[in-house]
Amino acid sequence: MARTNTVAELSSNSKERAGPTPVQRRWLLRGLNQPGGKLPLFDTDGSRVRERTVRSCIRKGWAEPWLHNPIKPDWLVCRITDSGRAVVAAERDEP
Fold it and tell me: What is the enclosing helix (H) or strand (E) of 40?
């Protein structure tokens, strides 16, 4: 009979618990010095930040929707959360 994982085991093994990817980390870092922790809509090359990156950070609690843009309602304007600040700071402190 196959072994089934408990919810606790699944949660502890889940990638959801992992730190941010390099792309997520760069995006979150850019919010640290912005008024209100606003996260950019575009990367440093002028390309729009991928929605997948934004939604993943929201799901993990590192970012939160902030403002509604009536001109571009499909754009998600976010700001970094305290959890986002903590996860980026923790990675900065690692050797």
Answer: none
Decide: pTM greater than 0.85. Answer: no
The model's pLDDT over 45-74, given as tens digits with 9 standing for 90+, comes to 999 999 999 999 999 999 999 988 888 888
- Domain span at residue 55 reads 21-93
User: How far apart, in whole angstroms, are the C-alpha atoms of residue 28 and residue 23?
Assistant: 9
Crossing angle of helices 22-31 and 51-59, rounded to 10°:
80
At residue 5, what is the residue type? N
CATH of residue 46: 1.10.10
Asked if residue 34 is part of any domain, the answer here is: yes
Please tell me the distance from the alpha carbon of residue 30 to that of residue 27, in angstroms, as a whole number: 5
Report the number of distinct structural domains present in the chain.
Answer: 1
Any domain includes 2: no
For 9-33, write each residue's pLDDT tens digit. Answer: 433 444 455 899 999 999 999 999 9
Could you report how far apart the first and last alpha carbons of the chain are, in Å? 44
